[in-house]
Design a protein that fits this description.
Helix content: 25-40%
Number of helices: 6
Largest sheet: 2 strands, antiparallel
Structural class: mainly alpha
Strand order of the largest sheet: 1-4
Shape: globular
Number of strands: 6
Radius of gyration: 21 Å
CATH class of the largest domain: Alpha Beta
Oligomer: single chain
CATH topology of the largest domain: Alpha-Beta Plaits
Number of domains: 2
Length: 220
């Protein structure tokens, strides 16, 4: 256990050694939160993308014992990027919402695509896809994730956070709640669940259309 006091400088130095894939496999909501946890004494062997080399760097910085990657957090794997089957994509935007570095581009009801050079391989876009049309493929030619990749990914992640915060600020604060319910408003508005329900209905309809189209193509 390191005796270093968790300071902003220490957190910055730890964060600089993490891969910045923002995959959350470490159990934290990104590399910076994991760096803060490590500075506070958490284990240094929970980052699969960083792998053995990353653990060694952290152990050296913090004067801790080098440990093998804990299997509970995953396994070290070759660098891969997300690829979208554009024939099956229904344009639901769920993968766009999930990408921590804005590496997926597209618009509602329009085909999405991945900017491979920006993709960190985090695979966070896979679970929300209702069509299972995203796969992770090893980069070609095969190469390792570099410090330059990490710096670029960090910059894109921070830019995304600023964009989302700006949008949230523009929307304004949410209505205050009283006894667990929204306080009365002087303006009429749609029920809170309307937008979410509408989006789910649109997605469900798009999925059904895609399934019918697939059935026509396969003769089923």
């Amino acid at each position: 256990m390191s005796s270093l006091v968790p300071t902003s400088d220490l957190i910055d130095r730890i964060d600089a050694l993490l891969p910045q894939t923002q995959c959350t496999k470490c159990g934290y909501q990104g590399c910076r939160p994991y760096a803060e946890a490590i500075a506070g004494g958490s284990a240094i062997n929970q980052c699969p993308p960083g792998g053995a080399a990353g653990i060694t760097k952290l152990a050296t910085l913090l004067n801790r014992r080098r440990l093998p990657l804990t299997p509970d957090n995953g396994h070290e794997q070759p660098l891969a990027v997300a690829v979208i089957d554009e024939d099956l994509c229904i344009g639901c935007t769920l993968c766009i919402d999930a990408c921590p570095v804005d590496a997926i581009v597209g618009a509602p009801k329009r085909m999405h695509t991945v900017i491979a050079s920006w993709c960190t391989g985090c695979d966070l876009c896979l679970p929300p896809c209702p069509m299972d049309c995203i796969v992770m493929r090893p980069v070609d030619p095969v190469r390792a994730w570099t410090e330059a990749d990490a710096r670029t990914a960090r910059a894109r992640h921070l830019a995304r956070k600023r964009r989302l915060q700006s949008a949230q600020d523009k929307d304004g604060p949410k209505p205050a709640k009283v006894a667990g319910r929204a306080a009365p408003s002087t303006t009429r508005s749609a029920p809170p669940s309307t937008d979410a329900g509408r989006k789910q209905a649109v997605i469900a309809a798009a999925v059904e259309r895609a399934r019918r189209r697939r059935g026509q193509l396969t003769g089923r």
